[in-house]
TrEMBL record, chain A:
Cellular component, GO annotation: plasma membrane
Family (UniProt): Belongs to the binding-protein-dependent transport system permease family.
Protein name: Iron ABC transporter permease
Membrane topology, record value: Multi-pass membrane protein
One Pfam assignment: BPD_transp_1
Transmembrane segments: 12-35, 55-81, 93-118, 138-164, 201-223, 251-269, 301-322, 362-384, 396-416, 422-440, 474-495, 528-549
Keyword Membrane: yes
């Protein structure tokens, strides 16, 4: 057996450094009096952090925000998944759009576009409603907890949908059929059989959204902070980034509890997803789930799905394009259209900091994703093919960062980098990004390796091919799809990265999302929109380029 | 026609014999050492279709993987033709790509990113064969497995039976010294398996090639092989041609594994040239005694269901005729499967569908003396 001890050990060291180092540094930092020195041990930071009168409010807000988002998201996802897999709703292709397209729109832009639509002063939708109905005050105020929950739910909807759909479509329909035979109605069967059997998937979705909304920074910063509603992430941001004396010790002390909560949730999640494989029955025979005929409700149901689609994709993009051309937010009118110009675009493209952030983000996207994929290939290889005790440890380590709230891990890395020459360099951001998003690369590559049955390699050897030739003609070509999707995932995430960057980005290492956050804080919505569209354009181009390169590589191989 | 395909595909024939000496392989599992192969000796002649048959975990696949070079034995020697490909004493261990063999895997191992032509051409490309040669030989191999014109299809779009034939074409295309099969039919459904087995039989008999075939399916083994080696717990229990293994085995385990068998403890009372009369719990039975077990020797009487004839009660007194009754009867299509009792002994047998016998009926039972045989008890 090929145990590859050297490779496994070096990967354990690298991945261990990436994932354990920030946690350890965070813990040490939370007990240190000064910043960057660990000489004096103190409990004071914990006392300060948790006796802060504001902390109770933060805790309460976080609780309402995360559970609210989890429930709303999961209910919406269940609705969408049920409509797609189990009913005869027309135009099903639209579900593919719902799941993929919102991922192209960075969270900060999505959030900002809703702030432009629903803020109480000059929100476009508010103004429009006031004009139509002759109201004196705004109808909606986005700067509230329900507003935060609304936007966060839309943001997390695709991921919750992707968790629920496989369970819903793998559902053994005979369970429902026997309920119908026993005399239960369609609706009764739904509530007494279908949903209970899907419980693990539903709980998984709830927990996943809890973790993501706990880590979310776009909504708390762009919507929460103007409304003076602070949650964990924005509270930590407030401690390190605003005011005269950033207190990284106190931030670390607050972060420790967020990290602990997140890790517990992820442990429960992994337990549940392991269990759901046993719970949800997958039958291979005669797999044609009976579709429920919606009859007269077909088009109203489609209207509801179409409406969600509009809110998720069309409206935010439209708002961004529209406001990028305007000097300030105004409702669409003849006056507005007459004032349209490319001024915001020119300003952004002549702004040295915006240009620097563009350059930095592109560099981080390209180099970070490439390094990340190389590391992911090696890690996935050891996890899937070597299968020793050490590779099990590597698997746990590499998925550890899945539970890291970005801003907390940013603080942890800050404690590490401040004593190294890496402080305030792009390399610091690069390391932080790869550490935080490693699971997104390891996951597609693990499944790629799983699909390469050992017989495929062995057969090549028996056919007279050397190990090197086998690697080139069989293993690598079969890995390319996994490498391409890993690269795309990582590159798009790095280009839009916000939560780690808000802590680690310093003057000179600005990145796109942080620059957009600055525009939002200053109310420069026009410039924000222009830079935002450039950002979407860049990540979309990266996706297209990577797909083309992947296809090209595959064609080259086919010809030999 | 067979001869023409043979000339078409493989000319000159390079089939070689295979000699295995003292092959031993240990596994480490949960801290325990498991002996997968225990001093296996085997000679496989050239142009022979040789089957390794046994229950799962008996070491047959390990033996095959050692021959092909995907696993390294702990001790012993393997020689293919004049080449020693593995020897623990001489420190030889040739990598699989140098051994010049062909293999059909249980999963077929069809590469999903290549079309049918590229899959079959792969062994030739790996050996740097010229372009025109590749074209010609791949086409010939595809014609042989009746997949002419399938070259441009994506390999994963083919049915299970077609994928299996692609795997066979790929294994044959480079004219291997020996071709190896690792349970190639076990992934097919019952109907297709029967069809493919016939097809494979035709291919193999036309080819005149040395083949080693691993299976746990006794029908496959009997239908395809020139000789069969039955394996159990890392050892070879018995080697022989299918008829010998089925009708005249030396070992009760083999008798039971190769087909349904009633094994009745017996003592030889009287012995003649070819037959013997033995005492059993149900009375004296005349049976074949090719092992020449002496008078007084202990033996197992092996009586296969199809050679125990069941009839309505009659009053004649032939040898080997007993009276019993039917306990249980199941209709399985071509016959009834029945459990009958003679005295205290339970036997499994088949009853012709037209014989009007039901459960509980009294019957006469006749053992076919030429097809019931004695196995020495150890």
């Amino acid at each position: 057996m090929n145990r590859k001890p050297l490779l496994t050990t070096s990967l354990l060291v690298i991945v261990g450094f990436l994932t354990v180092c920030p946690v350890v540094m965070l813990a040490i930092g939370s007990f240190s009096a000064g910043f960057g020195r660990f000489d004096r041990f103190t409990w004071m930071k914990y006392v300060e952090a948790y006796s802060d009168p504001e902390f109770l409010a933060v805790l309460w807000n976080t609780l309402v925000f995360t559970t609210g988002s989890a429930i709303v998201t999961t209910v919406l996802a269940l609705f969408l998944a049920y409509m797609n897999t189990r009913t005869n709703i027309p135009f099903k292709f639209i579900f593919g759009v719902v799941t993929v397209l919102p991922m192209m729109i960075p969270h900060i832009l999505f959030t900002a576009s809703w702030a432009m639509l629903l803020n109480p002063n000059n929100g476009m939708l508010n103004r429009l409603l006031m004009e139509i109905f002759g109201l004196k005050t705004s109808v909606f105020n986005i700067y509230t907890i329900p507003g935060m929950i609304f936007v966060e739910s839309l943001l997390d909807l695709p991921i919750a949908y992707l968790v629920i759909v496989p369970a819903m479509s793998a559902f053994d329909v005979s369970l429902e059929e026997s309920s119908r035979v026993c005399g239960a109605s369609t609706l009764g069967t739904l509530f007494r059989i279908t949903l209970p059997v899907l419980r693990p998937a539903i709980l998984s979705s709830v927990i996943l959204v809890l973790v993501r909304s706990l880590a979310s920074f776009a909504v708390p910063s762009v919507i929460g902070m103007p409304g003076r509603i602070y949650v964990y992430a924005s509270h930590i941001y407030r401690i390190v980034a605003t005011g005269f004396a950033p207190d990284y010790g106190k931030a670390a002390a607050v972060g420790m509890s967020a990290l602990a909560a997140s890790m517990v949730l992820i442990v429960v999640y992994r337990h549940l997803t392991g269990e759901s494989e046993r719970f949800v029955t997958i039958s291979s025979r005669g797999f044609k789930p009976t579709l429920i005929d919606l009859k007269g409700w077909r088009y109203p149901a489609f209207a509801a799905v179409g409406c969600l689609c509009f809110l998720l994709i069309v409206l935010p993009l439209l708002v961004l394009f529209y406001s990028s051309m305007l000097p300030y937010i105004m409702t669409p009118s003849a006056k507005a259209f007459s004032m349209m110009s490319w001024k915001n675009w020119m300003t952004v493209l002549n702004d040295p900091i915006s240009l620097l952030s563009l350059k930095n983000s592109l560099f981080l996207g390209f180099v970070g994703a490439s390094l990340g994929v190389v590391l992911s290939v090696l890690v996935a290889y050891v996890i899937v093919k070597v299968r020793t005790k050490a590779s099990g440890l590597l698997e746990s380590l590499s998925f550890l960062s899945f539970s890291f709230p970005g801003i907390v891990i940013g603080v942890g890395f800050m404690w590490f980098f401040v004593r190294t020459p890496l402080y305030a360099t792009l390399s610091a951001l690069l390391i932080g990004y790869i550490a935080t998003y490693l699971p997104y690369g390891v996951k597609p590559l693990s499944s790629a390796f799983v699909q390469i049955h050992s017989h495929l390699e062995e057969s090549s050897r028996v056919c007279g091919a050397s190990p090197l030739y086998t690697m080139r003609r069989i293993v690598l070509p079969l890995l390319i799809p996994g490498m391409v999707s890993g690269w795309i995932l990582m590159a798009t995430m790095f280009v839009r990265e916000l939560t780690v960057s808000v802590v680690l980005s310093r003057p000179g290492t600005e990145v796109l999302a942080v620059q957009i956050l600055r525009f939002a804080e200053d109310g420069l919505w026009g410039r924000l929109s222009a830079l935002g569209i450039i950002m979407i354009f860049i990540s979309s181009s990266l996706v297209v380029i990577a797909s083309l390169v992947g296809r090209k590589l595959n064609q080259m191989n086919l010809i030999g | 026609m067979g001869g023409r395909i043979q000339e078409d595909l493989l000319c000159p024939i390079a089939a070689m014999d295979l000699r295995i000496r003292g092959l031993t392989r240990d596994y480490e599992s949960d801290g325990k050492r498991i002996r997968a192969l225990d001093h296996v000796d085997l000679n496989i002649d050239s142009n022979e279709i040789f089957t390794l048959l046994g229950p799962s975990g008996c070491g047959k696949t390990t033996l095959l993987r050692c021959i092909v070079g995907l696993e390294t034995p702990d001790a012993g020697e393997i020689a293919i033709g004049d080449d020693i490909v593995f020897s623990s004493e001489k420190g030889i261990n040739m990598p699989p790509e140098k051994r010049g063999l062909g293999m059909v895997f249980q999963t077929y191992a069809i590469w999903p990113h290549m079309n049918v032509f590229e899959n079959v051409a792969y062994p030739l490309r790996a050996r740097n064969t010229s372009r025109s040669d590749i074209q010609e030989r791949v086409e010939r191999a595809l014609r042989f497995v009746q997949l002419e014109g399938f070259g441009n299809r994506p390999a994963t779009r083919l049915s299970g039976g077609q994928q299996q034939r692609v795997a066979l074409a790929r294994a044959l295309v480079a004219e291997p010294k020996v071709i190896l099969f690792d349970e190639p039919l076990s992934n097919l459904d019952a109907k297709l398996r029967e069809e493919t087995r016939k097809q494979l039989h035709r291919f193999l008999t036309e080819l005149k090639i040395t083949a080693v075939y691993v299976t746990h399916d006794r029908v496959e083994a009997l239908a395809l092989s020139d000789r069969i080696a039955v394996m159990k717990q890392g050892r070879i229990v018995e080697v022989g041609d299918p008829k010998k293994i089925y009708f005249d085995t030396d070992d009760p385990f083999v008798a039971d594994f190769i087909g349904r068998a009633n094994l009745i403890p017996a003592t030889v009372r009287h012995s003649s040239e070819t037959h013997a009369i033995v005492d059993t719990a149900i009375g004296p039975i005349r049976a074949r005694n090719s092992r020449r077990i002496p008078v007084g020797g202990k033996a197992m009487l092996c009586a296969r269901p199809e050679f125990i004839r069941v009839d309505l009660p009659a009053s004649d007194t032939r040898p080997n005729l007993f009276r019993g009754n039917v306990i249980h009867r199941i209709f399985v299509g071509e016959a009834y499967e029945a459990e009958i009792r003679i005295g205290e002994t339970l036997l499994t047998t088949t009853i012709d569908p037209e014989v009007a016998i039901e459960a509980g009926d009294d019957i006469t039972v006749v053992f076919d003396a030429d097809h019931c045989f004695l196995i020495p008890s150890s």
